Amino acid sequence: MIRPGPAAALLAVLAAVTAAAQAPRRPSPTPSPSPPRAPSPTPPAPPVAAAPVPTPAPEYRLGAGDVLEVIVFGNDDLSRTTTVQTNGAISLPLLGEVPVAGLTVAEAKQKLTSLLARDFLVNPQVDLKVKEYQSQFVTVLGEVNSPGRKGLRGRTRLIDVLVDAGGFTPRASGEVAIARAEGTFEGGGRTMRLRFGSASPSAIDQINLELVLRNGDIITALPKFYVTVEGEVNRPGRYVLDGDLTVTGAISTAGGLTRFGKNDVQVRRIDSQTGRTTIIAVDLKDVRKGKKPDPPLL
Question: Residue 126 in contact with residue 134, Cβ under 8 Å?
């Protein structure tokens, strides 16, 4: 790392994560490591901004691999547990193969009832339940304790999937990115970002965690970003980026310049993808006078 003389302050941005997660944040001192925690149904802290309102999620639709329990009351010989085959059908006594893929549970139940009533039973009473959800999944990536593919179980919420993934790791920033594979969010967007804090419950946090996921959604728990402030500042060290952090904001967070500090600051950026380093010179005096903009760090 380039170190300036005693009359300057050095600001180094450490880009240790993927470029896809670049979002502005405000700094706070790096906390000491803590055990992994699962998100609570009433998550902490107000978000940075109101999240886009998602369109209503459709009901779960049956697909190949789903295990169904079919109960025909008063006819135990017709009741059984069956799996939706790759052709989208289930096999039942009397009815043979019945296509159900793409139907909701209620639609499949009505279909079975109608088929039995048409040719075999008088006023049949049919119940249908999904015992194992195996046809629809979301993928959870990033700073969770158990990333990977997670099955959707009916109207599965974001909080359900985050808990299933073991909660956030200590490296998680509390920000979650969602990419929608089927359909869009309000306004036609196919991606959205949600922010969960760590202090007090927020009504918007609660709404965000109640978001119903769809087949193919990709959920990424984004990591923390850091800035290292060195040189002639009162509290040099590494700080967490959390908001619209600028050069002057980072220096202020580090306690401001010492009495030996001057207005010459260098920003060192390291590209995590290429390893290339860029150095930007900033004159704090020009920034304070409004002659130059206060450079954002992300």
Answer: no
**Last residue of some domain: 223, 251, 279?**
223
Instruction: Tell me whether residue 50 is in a domain.
Output: no
- H-type alpha helices, 152-293: 158-164, 203-209, 247-253, 284-288
Tokens standing for residue 288: 């304070």
CATH number of the domain enclosing 76: 3.30.1950.10
Is 116 among the domain residues?
A: yes
Same domain, 269 and 198: no
- Tens of pLDDT, residue by residue over 245-287, are 889 999 999 999 999 988 899 999 888 788 899 999 999 999 9
* Burial class of residue 88 (count of CB atoms within 10 Å of its CB; 0-12, 13-18, 19+): middle
The residue segments making up the domain with residue 121 are 67-132
Can you tell me the distance from the alpha carbon of 139 to that of 135, in angstroms, rounded to the nearest whole number? 13
Phi/psi of residue 204, nearest 5 degrees = -70, -35
> What pLDDT score was predicted for residue 12?
56
Residues of the chain with pLDDT under 70: 1-58, 197-202, 242-243
